[in-house]
Please model this.
Amino acid sequence: MDMKSVERKWQAKWEKTKLNVFNKKNMDNKLYVLEMFSYPSGANLHVGHWYNYGPTDSYARFKKMQGFEVFQPMGFDAFGLPAENYAIKTGIHPKDSTEKNIATMEQQLKHMGAMFDWTAEIKTCEENYYKWTQWLFLQLYKKGLAYRKEALVNWCPSCETVLANEQVINGECERCGSVVLRKDMTQWFFKITDYAEELLDGLDRLEWPEKTKLMQKNWIGKSTGCEINFECETGDTITVFTTRPDTVFGVNYVVLAPEHPLVEKFKESHPENAAAIDAYVQYAAEANDIDRLSTAREKTGVFTGSYATHPLTGKKLPIYLADYVLYSYGTGAVMAVAAHDERDYAFAKKYGLPVTQVIQKAGGETVLPFCEDGILVNSGSFDGLSGDEARNAIAVHLTKIGKGGKKVNYRLRDWSVSRQRYWGAPIPMIHCPKCGVVPVPEKELPVKLPYDVEFRSTGKSPLASNESFMKCTCPECGGKASRDPDTLDTFVCSTWYYLRYLDPKNDKQAFSKELANKMAPVDVYVGGPEHACMHLLYARFITKALRDMHYLDFDEPFKRLVHQGIILGPDGNRMSKSKGNVVSPDKYVDEYGSDIFRLYLMFGFSYTEGGPWNDDGIKSISKFTDRIERLVQASLKYTAPANANTEKKSAEKELDFAKNHAIKNITRDMEYFSFNTSLARMMEYVNALQKYDADVAEKNVAFYKGCIDDLIRMLAPFAPHFSEELWEMTGHKNSVFEERYPLVDEKALVRDETEYAVQINSKIKAKLMIPEGLSDEDIQATVCAYPEIAEQLQGKTVKKCIIVKGRLVNLIVG
RNA sequence: GCCGAAGUGGUGGAAUUGGCAGACGCGUCGGACUCAAAAUCCGAUGGUAGCGAUACCGUGUGGGUUCAAGUCCCACCUUCGGCACCA
Model:
């Protein structure tokens, strides 16, 4: 079969008959299947895209044939850093390169033959989309969920620009090699932490992979502990968070993150230490959080010269700065208990600080640092308590004396959404010298992204250089004001795109509430596991926020989630241009056609695992479709005599069994996205058809042709163009996708006997056929009576007989 | 470093969740068809020993639980994903 022309033929037909367009009339029966949209970075569709979209489309088609009205849209996450970097390198404007890439990818996606509903297509870089991303920002601002604060960014002092983490290589700027510093900058944040508890709590009710839920849980990082206040000489209070208030009597010193605001105060009160402090702050600014949190990193720090007072003992405690404390976690300060914390212990040993043991191992020798629960000693009236009891008692006492109390802390931080970049949605805020920060009125949206901008680094955001963009009037006082020069993190665009797909042309609102409530949440969302913590968490947060603002009646965006695995390069490494191991799907699609390429992706890998690319099996898939074509062709010639016998003889029963076995297993496996096993069952069925075709001279033609029709129906989701062609070839006038997926006939699967494995003392001795429907006693009797087994049982007594119905019998003999 | 996964024949991968390890393919070997090749079809194929029935070994490594472990528990090794400005 000429796959290419067949593909074009059916793609054109589907478009004409609107086969892939969601029919709103059947909304009650909807199934929203969504693949993560793609970022148009390269000019071409990648194997990874194919691997995500091809098999998932087969799932969607399968569900369609089960009678669901499937909505499967596609679009482009079009803003982002790579297009801007490309522009800096080549001078090609991000808008131009992005639009060109999208045009190419659209063509490739259409040639893939997936049943995407292109009438719902969205591109996040278009005004009619980002207008509503800006609207979303304003709603969050109104709700108090968007605010400004200082935050650290990677700063290249020689390029005078903010760098993405990706652009920092071993602490140096990827462009110029300068040492990258961490610098404070005022940025917009979304208060995702307000939803920490709900985001955690909601995980239980999601049909998501357990590992993903666990990762999100750890990312949110709830810990229950205690806040404790330490008074300083300067009159300030250092508040620390600890999960181990039971060790509070063992505090030897207090440590602040180098970025802590109190550092300035300490420099003033101890000017003799200022130089050392500055040097250390500089040193810390050169490291990233991952390195700083590494337990393998050499502990470093500097004494501030100042002291704090222990809230319970009144002891004077030296105050240090150390980079193993992060300003972004907890309060940015910790109480150091050298005897009972690994890092504090290492630090204390290095700087010659005292180590005070206050916990004793219950019933054993205590080796320091001892970090487990134990019995309190040297802890005043709390001696003898342990674990939760001690933590509770101390927390209650601290509350009573006003020096702290119980506190729940989350590792989750608020989401920084400002980017000092050009290619993104402008932040719809205005800075007025009189009125301060003022939101752009909704009726003035979108704040359009100007085309003419110098996006090379100038020390400021690229938009800041465009005067006509920056200049505006304050909506409140009418005076001269300027726009926010930053753009939004692209993750903001992708938090709500699943809603826009439902209502992509709406120019009155971001989406219709009524439609959203009917069509969403997404029933099945498919994408890479690399999004486990960020995109997937942000989308959940925004959905909950929209619910609280009464734009939605549901609170989770993605009911079910499936991760496809990652296809690596043939060398086992992640595909990348620099490694030269990128595999292009195009040459395979050209050579074999998109159906065969899709079939191979489904058959050759475990969908959720992925793995290194190899094309060993792709030819065999092409043989498989050839074999099917030959079978179908041959069946066309068979005609039944007028007085044909329609009784099913053993050969027909055998084939019927094979067919129903395949239907049953495929129907189950498709639900789990187990495409490789589904196709294995399909191959077994084809083998059975071939055997019947070859072995049975007097065919039951009507029955056999029915089996061929079912084969085409069964194959349709996996090889859509090929199956349509076969369906037409066998004389059908409709689309095979208007057919129902064959249902299993359980009667055909009933057999009189089942094969059992027979073990003696857990070793397999024989395999026997045992009639169905016997009691355990009868099964044991049957097995023991079997000559081969009886022989081996001679002179022994059966002490125990374990029977697993339909599988195995294990005789324990002595 | 921390969080989360994965490791099964020569190879891609199965294994109904504790019940016959290796389904279905690829590859290899043997055979049929052919002047020959391709294509197609049939058969064999985890390892070791044996003519053979068969026996022993075998799911990253080492221990453990169990009548029974690829699957559960403990320790370790290797690889992969994420770590908050790649998306």
About this structure: The radius of gyration of chain A is 34 Å. Chain A has a mean pLDDT of 92. Residues 712 and 726 of chain A are 7 Å apart (CA to CA).
